[in-house]
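Standup, Tuesday
Yesterday: got the pipeline producing structure tokens again.
Today: sanity-check two examples.
Blockers: none.

Example 1:
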Amino acid sequence: VRAQGDTYQIVADVSQFEPPDIVVTTSNHHVTIRAEKVAEDGTVCDTFAHQCQLPEDMDPLSVRCTLTEAGTLLITAHRR
């Protein structure tokens, strides 16, 4: 987590996954990123998981996710 002005940012490279494969959840000042690539035969061939804690002064209603065309997931949250 890095701070820029009044915004916290989390950046993750998920370029090996398609957008439907990526799930981002928040709970109790924690952000969890999970991604799973499933092969045509139903087996899981690649996974990604990352969890981080956001600072206490973060506004939980301000969390936003953006996935760039290059496959970079950008999660932002504003300070209260």
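Example 2:
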Amino acid sequence: FRKLMCFTLMFCVVSDIHVPSPRSTMKPGSPIPTNTNSPGVRKAARFGVYRYNNSSNDLFLFKDSQINKAMVQIVRGLKYMLHVEIKRTVCKKREHSSLDSCHFQSKKSLQQMLRCYFEVWITPWLHKVHVPVVHCH
């Protein structure tokens, strides 16, 4: 059952990826643009945000507010390359809140937005996620 579930997850994620036409000059294994609203991209962005929050000294949690660009590369799993805007929420880190229930800061003095580049490797059949690159400014 586990293998079937992993295959189904992989099929759903990969089937959402745009495959170039056979006449394309794009090389196999090259990163390809993908829909910024796809479930796989949104999930990868959230992993990037979790990694940012775990390494940040900010009192508040940040949450993804907009995914501006997404690329995916199929290499021993899925490697997502994402340009994401994240914003400070009202949830404090020590509360360990679910990001879904965290609203963005409304108080002007506490609002903050960062532009981030995340690389997220997802290997569904091994249940592994690795976020080797997090650059935010």
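Quick observation on example 2: The chain has one domain: 32-136. The CA atoms of residues 32 and 106 lie 36 Å apart.
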